[in-house]
């Protein structure tokens, strides 16, 4: 291999891993019919003039399989937390008990489960597109180096195969995560 050109595969892999991490975060916010503290991660509360995650304004607990509770530390924020949950699109109706907000998780019906699997599929497709964009960036770097004459044809093939292997590994990871999440959603 030529010493002139070295593709930063660590950077490409880090960016693909970032797409996978983002997918896991989006999957965690999808309801599966079971209570989970992570389902509240995307919900932001307007607290003290800034959008703040719920876990920074109160303690999030899961005392039962179908119940999430939030013990809000500042009494003045209870209404704002309740409003943020109502407007989040989670489909959960908060119930107040002093500074504790209780979120009963309703049973998912078959139609809602199918809708959630479609949403999970959309999240997975976004992750695949992000990974393919990183692949394209890597391939563009290789083509540019080839046109500059700093990489031979054999080296070009080696680097392209390396980038493709990284891409295939991450796409397979997305597909596996999607299958797992869809099975979890459809489980009654």
Structure description:
Responsible for the release of ribosomes from messenger RNA at the termination of protein biosynthesis. May increase the efficiency of translation by recycling ribosomes from one round of translation to another. InterPro entries: Ribosome_recyc_fac, Ribosome_recyc_fac_dom, RRF_sf. By secondary structure, this protein is α+β, with helices and mostly antiparallel strands. Helix 1 (about 10-30) packs antiparallel against helix 3 (about 110-150), helix 1 (about 10-30) packs parallel to helix 4 (about 155-185) and helix 3 (about 110-150) runs antiparallel to helix 4. The model has no long low-confidence stretch (mean pLDDT about 85). The chain is built from four helices and six strands; from the N terminus they run αββββαββαα. The strands form two sheets. A four-stranded antiparallel β-sheet has the order 3-4-6-5, covered by helices on one side. A two-stranded antiparallel sheet has the order 1-2.
């Amino acid at each position: 291999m030529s010493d002139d050109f070295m593709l930063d595969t660590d950077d490409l892999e880090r960016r693909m891993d970032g797409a996978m991490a983002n997918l896991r975060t989006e999957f965690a916010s999808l309801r599966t019919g079971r209570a989970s503290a992570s389902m509240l991660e995307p919900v932001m509360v307007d607290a003290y003039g800034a959008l703040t995650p719920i876990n920074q304004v109160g303690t999030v607990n899961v005392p039962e399989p179908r119940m999430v509770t939030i013990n809000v530390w500042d009494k003045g924020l209870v209404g704002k937390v309740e409003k943020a949950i109502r407007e989040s699109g989670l489909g959960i109706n908060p119930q107040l008990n002093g500074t504790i907000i209780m979120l009963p998780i309703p049973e998912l019906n078959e139609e809602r489960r199918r809708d959630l699997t479609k949403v999970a599929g959309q999240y997975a497709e976004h992750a695949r597109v992000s990974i393919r964009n990183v692949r394209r960036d890597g391939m563009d770097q290789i083509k540019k180096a080839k046109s500059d004459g700093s990489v031979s044809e054999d080296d070009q093939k080696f680097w392209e195969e390396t980038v493709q292997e990284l891409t295939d590994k991450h796409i397979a990871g997305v597909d596996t995560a999607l299958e797992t999440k869809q099975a979890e959603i459809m489980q009654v």
